[in-house]
Amino acid sequence: MMNLSRAVVRSFATTSNRRATAVGKDQIDKGYFEIKKVQEHFQKKDGKPVFLKGSVFDSVLYRITVALALVGVGGMTKLFYDLSVPKKE
Prior knowledge:
This protein is mainly α. Helices cover about 70% and strands about 0% of the residues. The protein has two domains: about 1-45, no CATH class; about 45-89. The longest helix has 29 residues, at about 55-85.
C-alpha cells in the first residue's frame, strides 16, 4: 500500500519537462497546434472584447442579455415610482 501511494505522488510530482523528455521532444500532440490556433484567434487586436470574438451567436446572446437587463431596470424604475408616489383616488 505504501509503494502505491509513493508511485502516485511521484507521478504528480514529476515535472512536465521530465515527462516530455521521457516521451520524446519530437512527438508533439496535434491538439497543441489547435489550441495555439484558437489562442491566436482570441488574442487578435481587433478592438472586440473577448466575449464577442467567438461567433455571431456570441453577439446575439450579448444583445439579448443587454436588452433583458434594460427591461429589468425599467421594471424596477416603474416599481419604485409606483411605490413612492401615492395614487390619487
